[in-house]
Amino acid sequence: MKAVVVELKNELAAVLSEDGCIVTVKNNYYEVGQEIQMKNPKISYRKKLTAFAAAAAAIVVLSAGTWAYASPYTYVSLDVNPSIEFTVNRFDRVLKVKAINDDGEEILNEISLKDLENHTIEDAITKTVEQISEAGYFNGDTQGGIVIATSAKNEVKAEELAQGLQQSVDNEVTENGDDVEVEVFSVGVERVEEARALGVTPGKLNLVEKLQASAADPSTINLEEWLKKPVKDIMKATKDNKNLSNDTEPTITMDQKEQQKNQLEESSKKQEHQKVNDKAKNDKKNATGKVGSTEDNHKTDEDKLIDRDKESNKNQKSYNDKSSDKTKDETKRSAEKAKNDNKNTKDNAQKANNHTQNTKDDSKMSSNDTDKESQNSKGNTKNSTDNTNDDRTSNTKDRSTSGSDHTSRKN
């Protein structure tokens, strides 16, 4: 019995058997996603209970790995005229196969689902293409066609898977000797939902929209009608539209290209001269208020260009004169400013000298006042001393007189 390894835990491996059971086996250096062959020996009732208990414990421990294996991760559609959709897990193993139309149902009836489910998507696609080839869908004069679309939430994963399937299917059709054009591309999840709403695959929907884009009038391509046709018919119609578009385009030789280039250059020159003439007329009209004289109307383009150059030189000279006058004015203003600055400097120096002289005068006056105060102080001291001496002499005289009077009275 076949089984697929879904999780590894030390020396044990959890495998998903063909009958849908999760079984634990010894890990003989297995890898997740590896397909192994299991024996189905007869065991006793007690051993069955033991094995059941071990399996239950493994389910609890390895439930995360089992969920990852059993969860849809990528969708792959295959279209020839049979249309088939594959649901794939994150290990690129096929979980489910579904026919989209009656032809797809007939192909799946010829293939055992056991040969597709739990196999890698590359193996499942190549086996399906082989069965379609044996059914005769690639026979006939018209080149066959295969369209494969991959879709996943991880866009990088979807693109990598598309590239791998492209190589696998190319090798398969080459080995079978079939004349088949193979297109493989990735699409968004929204595209898958849009195609399912129409009852088709995203690959075929993309193919018909390419046909609409290649048509001269896209409205002539009925979407529902073409979605029911084989891939090879859609591819052929698209190629025919492209070839028709290429045939209707005129072939241009190198001489014709050179001639067209020269004509474009000549036309460009004429347009430039015309612009110059129109501008000259407008300038003349604005300057004089008249449309222009008869002489101006008979002037050649070369004369008008010369007049324009003269006018330009005149304007340049006027500009230069104005610039020169402006420079002179600026020089004159600079000289006057320098003169005023020198005058101000002299005035400031004179003010400084005056201030210094005033300071000296103030100092001298202060010194004189000090001398006067000193002299007054000396005078006051002398007067005080004289007054004191006078008072002392007077007092002495008074006491002498008093003593004499006293002595006289005694006698």
Descriptive report:
The protein has 411 residues and is of the alpha+beta class. It has three domains: 68 residues, no CATH class; 177 residues, no CATH class; 77 residues. It has twelve helices and nine strands. The protein has a five-stranded mixed beta sheet, with helices on both faces. A four-stranded antiparallel beta sheet has the order 3-2-1-4. Helix 4 packs parallel to helix 5, helix 7 runs parallel beside helix 9 and helix 10 crosses helix 12. The relative contact order is 0.05. About 4% of the residues have low confidence.
Number of strands: 9
Proportion of strand residues: 5-15%
Q: Total domains, how many?
A: 3
Which structural category fits the helices and strands? alpha+beta
Give the CA-CA distance, first to last residue: 183 Å
How many helices? The count is: 12
Largest sheet: 5 strands, mixed
Mean of residue pLDDT values: 77
Tell me the series of helices and strands, N- to C-terminal.
Answer: EEEEHHEEEHHEHEHHHHHHH
Task: Give the low-confidence spans.
Answer: 41-47, 400-408
| Spatial shape | elongated
**Rg, please?**
59 Å
User: Order of strands in the sheet with the most strands?
Assistant: 7-6-5-8-9
